[in-house]
User: What shape does this take?
Amino acid sequence: MDKVVATAEEALADVTDGRSFAVGGFGLSGVPEVLIGALYATGASGLAVVSNNCGVDGRGLGVLLAAGRIARVTGSYIGENKEFARQYLAGELEVELTPQGTLAERLRAGGSGIPAFYTPAGVGTQVADGGLPWRYAADGSVAVASPPKEVRTFDGVEHILEHAITTDYALVRAARGDRHGNLVFHRAARNFNPSAAMAGRITVAEVEQLVEPGRLDPDEVHLPGVFVQRVVRLTPEQAADKGIEKRTVRER
Assistant: This one.
């Protein structure tokens, strides 16, 4: 039952090229940056990543993007990452954009054993009708476009069929966790981390504070240990290193 692994590098030692990853975080909040660094160190390439966004230039998943390690992204927001936008528009990266709530539910459904579900989100748009550019050609034309989705009407409202997402690995960050893999997330870090963790066949969690089994009140656990296979304890320095995507202050 003890799922603690000594280092992040050891936790990802079995990663090979072409693997898929669900990665928690939103912007730079709750991003498993230590595990992303360990993934970078493996040298693996051709990766498929499922994440709300792809970090920012120089941090988070942006580190893997800049190195050309990511082949495909499923997300909802290109965001503040100029390299992400450049690779997508240049045809170097395949990108499946999906509504944010739909993305979260596709991950949760994958972890719950639900193969697909209907949602009204995206009805009447290219999300439903198809034609969203997944990959551009070098001349700027669309090389790969999204296919149309099945539409059904429930109680007079049209819904589209969305397929669940499962991945080879999931990387998440938690504020606290025990040796059995039970996790607690802190405030905004409880964004995509629980749903991403559920979707991974092998889920690796980096935790800022590791406690012994029984120390976490069951009522405060956000993610049960059944969804987590490996736990990495962060050093105090690693736990304190948290990026701010946009620092804003008011005048004194």
Summary: The first strand starts at residue 4 and ends at 5.
